[in-house]
What we know:
Blueprint: H1 2-17, H2 22-29, E1 32-33, E2 37-42, E3 45-50, E4 56-58, E5 63-64, H3 67-77, E6 90-91, H4 107-118, H5 121-131, E7 133-134, E8 140-147, E9 150-157, E10 166-172, H6 181-204
Antiparallel strand pairs: 1-2, 2-3, 3-4, 4-5, 6-10, 7-8, 8-9, 9-10
Amino acid sequence: MRTNNYEIAKDQARKLFLNWDQARMIERCKLNADGEYLYLPFLGQPFRIVRATGAAENLATGAEANFEEALSIYDYLCRELPPPGMAGQWKPVGALRGAGQTSPSAGDFHQRYAERFQQRLPALRRALAELGGPFPVGDVACRFPVFDGFDAVFQFWEGDEEFPPSARFLWDDNTPDYLKFETTFYVMGCFLELLERRIAEIDAD
């Protein structure tokens, strides 16, 4: 089953994480840590990793990290070189170094969310203001933290009689030094789900 395949892949990534030097990881990524856990924010939410087992937990929800959350965190942490800092040049995901000419487009991936956001613009504006800071391009846009010192951008344009609503992400030119290309899709999915949950909470107020 598909769910089982995801769990298998997450478990494999967890075991690979345990092969890395955690002391070096703490120093390289400037993590808070104690004898039991490593702590880090992901998309502005607090997470921790059990040092003995590698299991990742979302402290905001009290739940085990899902596949996309866990793989994003492991990819960010399991690297040799320290984070280089952001270059300050924004690109769509397909234009990133290492994306390749046959890399999948993120357009269809985002469209179903854009159509739902079109109907909930006041809540969308409020949710984006809570999840990140302003960004100048887009009918509604924000620059949001992925990890400490590493941000991405979400942009939304309203639809009209001629064009459907659209949404896209922009990534810093140094993103490949933080995450693999495929991991950016996990992060985008996590952000869209987080954004939709926050919109639902706002609508329910």
